[in-house]
Amino acid sequence: MALRIGVIGAGQLARMMIAPAVELGLDIRVLAEDEGMSAQLAATAVGDYRDVETVRRFAAEVDVVTFDHEHVPQEVLRALVADGIAVHPGPDALRFAQDKLEMRARLADLGVPQPDWARVESPEALQSFLDAHGGRGVVKTPRGGYDGKGVRVVDNAQDAAEWFDRLESGDALLVEELVPFVRELAQQVARRPSGESVVYPVVETVQRGGVCAEVLSPAPGASEKLIEVAARIGREIAEGLGVTGMLAVELFETDDERILVNELAMRPHNSGHWSQDGAITGQFEQHLRAVADLPLGDTSLRAPWAVMVNILGGPQNATMGERLDTVMQKHPSAKVHTYGKDPRPGRKVGHINVTGDDLDDAVYEARSAAACFE
Amino acid sequence: MALRIGVIGAGQLARMMIAPAVELGLDIRVLAEDEGMSAQLAATAVGDYRDVETVRRFAAEVDVVTFDHEHVPQEVLRALVADGIAVHPGPDALRFAQDKLEMRARLADLGVPQPDWARVESPEALQSFLDAHGGRGVVKTPRGGYDGKGVRVVDNAQDAAEWFDRLESGDALLVEELVPFVRELAQQVARRPSGESVVYPVVETVQRGGVCAEVLSPAPGASEKLIEVAARIGREIAEGLGVTGMLAVELFETDDERILVNELAMRPHNSGHWSQDGAITGQFEQHLRAVADLPLGDTSLRAPWAVMVNILGGPQNATMGERLDTVMQKHPSAKVHTYGKDPRPGRKVGHINVTGDDLDDAVYEARSAAACFE
C-alpha cells in the first residue's frame, strides 16, 4: 500500500504537493477547511483544524501528518503525537513558527544573527526600545501574522497603542530594530526526521507592500561566503529547532555584508516556488520526501537562473482561463502555476516561473508573463 | 469556471496529465474503466468506454474529450461529435491510429516514406509478398495491437496461418518488409485544432522484447538533416491526418540514412516521457494545451541530454514504496515517475528520467536508478 501523507489545510501549498505525490506514488490526503478549496482534488475530509476530534479522525487514516499552514493549535498537535501519529514538523518545532517571541528567544540561544529585539508588555517599554534604536522600530504581534499583517513600522509607541490595548494579561508584543538592509534573501532547507538535511542556493526576494512579489535564484552577485553563511544559518536553525520538512529562512542582507534572520516558515514557502521549475527537486517534492523520512533529492539548479513572479490580484476584467490563453500565446517558455482561486485585489492566485541563461531576460519574461494577468 | 477536460481511460497517461492540469488550473475529469486505476485521483466516472451512453453522459459534463488510449470505437466517437462535443483527436484522425492498414494507405497517399507493405487476405498473398522481399516480413493484425502484441516476424506464410483463420470476411492482415534499420527513432509533434503545431527534437528509442526500454533525447549523433527530416515528417503526418493533441511517430533509421515510419500514436507516448523533465513543456502539459486549443508551449530542452528508462515488471521481492527509498538514497538526481500499478513481469509500472550535460553519465544514472526496482 502506498504511504499515506495527510496534509492539514487545503491552500495552494497543499495543492502544489499533489503533483509530486502523484509522481512518487504517495497517497496524498487533504483535510480541507471548506469545499472548493485550492487543494480540493486531494481533499478527503472537510473540517476545522482547530477541533481535536476532527483532526484525530483525519490523522487516523494516514501514515504521517504535515501542513499547508502553521495555524494548527499546539494542543491539537500534541494530541496527535500522544496518539502515536508521526507529525512533521512536530509541535516542538512548529511553536517557533507560531510565536515570533519564542522564535527570537530560541535563535538568541542558538547564537544565530538577528536584529536587536525585545519583548515589550507596555507602550513605555516599547518607547524605551525605540529611543535606544534611533527612534524607530518594527512592532509585531507574536502570533497570527502573515504577508505583512500583524507587522507595523513605528516611530512612536502610541502607533502600537491599540495592539497593547488588545493584549491579554501576560502577553506581549515583539519589537525589532529597523534593519538598514540592502536587500532581502531567503534560504530554503529540507530536513528529515532522521537528521539528513539539504540546502538550496540562497535567493533574493523582492517584497512589495509587505508581500513577496519576485524571487531571483540564485541571489544575484552573491559571494561564495554569503552563500555559505546563509546555508549554514539555515542548517543551524533546522537542526536547532528540530524542523522536519521544508524550512524557509527569510533574511536581511545589510550594507556591511551581514545577514540577519527576519522570519521563519516551516513548510514550502513562496520564496521557494522557483524550485518547481528551477531545481532538480522542487520544494514540494522535497517536503514530501522529508516528512515521509525518505532520502532527500538533488537541489542543483536546472538552469543558471530561475525567476518567480507572483500573480497578485489576478485578472481585472477577464477570467483566469482567458488570461491563460494570452500568457501562453505571448510567453511560450513561461511556466504558469495557478491556485484555483477567485481573483481579488492583492490575493496570490498563481505565479510564473521562468528559467534561463540570462538573468535580465528571465526577469523580463517572468514579469511580462505575470503582467498578462493584471 | 475552469475549462473541463475529460479523459477517457484511466491508465498512466491520464495519470500523468493530472499534474499539468492542476498547475494550469484546468479541471481534469477521467472516465475510468474500473475503480483503483492509475488515474484514480481524477476519476469522476467509472464505466465502459465502448458503451455510447456511458461515454455520452461523461462527455456532457466536460468542454473537451481526449484519451488515455486509442481504443474508443468509431461509433462512440462519432456519436459525441454528432452531439456537438469537441473530441481531440477526432474520429477522422483516430481511425488511422486504430487501423494500421488505413494508416499505411493514408501515409502512401501523403508520400511519407514508409516500409514496403501490402494488404493480404490469404496465406498465398502473404507468401508472394515474402518471396518478393527476401523471404521475410513483419505481419501485423491491423487492430488492437500494442507493445509488440499483434506483431510477428515470419519467414513463411504458414507462421501467420492462425491469424488468417481468425479473420472475418472482408478483413485482411498487414505485411511489411523487414526494414534493415540501424536504430529506432521517435518524433513528437503537438498540433492544435486551429492548426498551430510544434515539434520536439527527434529521439532514439531502444526496444527490448518489442517494448520500449529506453529513450535518449535528442537522438545521439543526429545530423541537422535527420532532425529536420524527422520534424518535417512529423508535421506532415499531423497535418495530413488532422491530428489534434500529441502525436508520436515511431521511425526506423536505415544504414543508408533514410527514415521510414513504423507506427503512430495519437496521444502522449512512452517515447516522449523524457520531456516531463527534459523539456520546458512536457508532453502531458502540451497535450492538454493542444486539445484545449490553447497556445502551445516551448519544446526547448532543459539540459543537453535527457534519458528515460522504463521500470518494467517492478520490484521482485519488495513493494514499490520500499524500492523508492533505495532509489532516492542512491540516485538523488533521478526523477521517479510511478503509475500506481501493482508490479508484475513485463508490466510498465513507472519510469526514471535523468537529465545532464553528459550522455553516458545520464544513461548510467537512469539505468542504475531503474535497476533499483528489479
UniProtKB/TrEMBL annotation, chains A, B:
Membership in a protein family: Belongs to the PurK/PurT family.
Pathway listed: Purine metabolism; IMP biosynthesis via de novo pathway; 5-amino-1-(5-phospho-D-ribosyl)imidazole-4-carboxylate from 5-amino-1-(5-phospho-D-ribosyl)imidazole (N5-CAIR route): step 1/2
Organism expressing this protein natively: Microbacterium keratanolyticum
Gene Ontology molecular function: 5-(carboxyamino)imidazole ribonucleotide synthase activity; ATP binding; metal ion binding; phosphoribosylaminoimidazole carboxylase activity
Pfam families membership: ATP-grasp (PF02222), PurK_C (PF17769), RS_preATP-grasp-like (PF22660)
Domain ATP-grasp intervals: 104-292
Reaction catalysis annotation: 5-amino-1-(5-phospho-beta-D-ribosyl)imidazole + hydrogencarbonate + ATP = 5-carboxyamino-1-(5-phospho-D-ribosyl)imidazole + ADP + phosphate + 2 H(+)
GO biological process, one term: 'de novo' IMP biosynthetic process
Subunit structure: Homodimer.
Keywords, comma-separated and alphabetical: ATP-binding, Ligase, Nucleotide-binding, Purine biosynthesis
Protein name: N5-carboxyaminoimidazole ribonucleotide synthase
Keyword Transmembrane helix carried by entry: no
